[in-house]
Amino acid sequence: MSANQIETALFAWERDRGVFAVMTVALIVAVPLAALYDVLTLPFGIGLCAGASFMAVKALVADFRAWQIQQGRFGAPVEYLNHRLPRNMQIMEKERP
Length: 97
Fold this sequence. Notes:
By secondary structure, this protein is mostly helical. It has helices at 3-36, 42-71, 77-84.
């Protein structure tokens, strides 16, 4: 791939991450708003929470893909989490003999 194609792909994944993150927040904010206007039912609330969860996973995948492009390699999800999480939350790996 050329440098321009790589830059375009990185921009697309970062844009997708932002869109999915905004949609996640909007769906979470919709739950108390629906309750405030007395239109919140159990199926509607479950649907909003499921949609927010789905969008959060999509944002995580888009961020992982953007991280892989920034690293210039296909890194493992454990490496991604160790890079993104704070030091006190990092994944502990077994030492292999």
